[in-house]
Hints:
Elements: H1 12-17, H2 19-37, H3 51-71, H4 77-90
Helix pairs in contact: 2-3, 2-4
Amino acid sequence: MDIVPTPPSLPMPLRRQDPLMAKAEEMEAAFLAEMLGHTGLDRMEGDFGGGEGEGQFASFLRQEQARLMVAKGGIGLAEMIFKSMTEAARDPA
């Protein structure tokens, strides 16, 4: 069984031009960075551990990994946030 990523609903040039989409992607990246922090994958022990410096800079690595995940399509959260924000902007109640 092959897993095929779902393509983004908006073409890439439009995604980069829309400030709402940029904010939605930032929110998805923040969510993914937080989730990556809870996996424990960045904690290395023993001779290969980075010590105190590794712990202090691990958040930067997680943020960049999350940003790259979103740039490659992410998990679809940015699209859902974007659609929700555009619908809310159209229907002010």
